[in-house]
Amino acid sequence: MIDLYYHFGPNPTKIVLFLEEAGLPYKLVPVDTFKGDQFTPEFTRLNPNNKVPVIVDDGIVVFDSSAILIHLGEKSGQFYPVGTAEERAELRSWLMFAATGLGPYCGQAVHFRHFAPEPKDYAVNRYMFEARRHYAILDDRLSEREWIVNGQYSIVDMAVWGWTRNIDFILGADARQEYPSLMAFVDRISERPAAKVAASLRDSGVFKQSYDQEAHDHMYRHGGTQ
User: Fold this and answer.
1) Residues in domain GST N-terminal (predicted)?
2) Is 67 exposed, middle or buried (0-12, 13-18, 19+ CB in 10 A)?
3) Structural domain total, the chain
C-alpha cells in the first residue's frame, strides 16, 4: 500500500493521475497546506522541504513529484518507457523540462499575478513570459504528435497535464486559444477516468477552501503581505 500525502495543487494531482492509471493501491493522507499542516514535525520528517506530494511506499519515502513519478514508473513498469538509449534520453529531457521549467515558472506566475503585493509589474511580466514560452514549446511539440515522448502516454504527459489543465488561472481567460495543440492534449487526458478522479481532489471537502490571510501566511512565509 502506498501512502500519498497530498493537497489539491498541481503536483499532487499528477501523482493521483498516475496511481489511478496504473491501478496501484494507495491511501490518501491529506495535508492542508492552507492551514500549515506541511510544517508539522511529523510531515517535516518525511520532507524537510515542507511540500506535497510525498509518498511512503512500503517504508520508502519519496518526495518531489518528478521523483515520485520516476519511482512509480520503475516500480510498476507502466507509463515509463525504457526502450533505446535515445528514447530514455528523450523522456528524461522532457520530464526535466517540466520539472525545472514549466512547473516553477507557472508557480511563480500564479504567485505574482494573483497573490503578491504591489509593485509587481516586473515580476509578473518576467514569469508570465517564461510560462508562455514553455507552453509555446509544448504546443509546437504537440502539433505533430499525440503524446510528448516516444509516441506513448507517459509520466511526462502526466507531469505537463498537472501544470496545464488550469492554464486560464495561470495566464488568463484567453490562454486556451493561444495553444490549440496543447489544449487538445490536455482535453485528451482530462477525459480519462483516472484524470477525473485526480481533478476531483479539490472538491473532496477535506481541505480548507478559502484563501485568506492565514492561508497566505502558510503558503508564503517570507513575510510579504497579501
Assistant:
1) 1-80
2) middle
3) 2
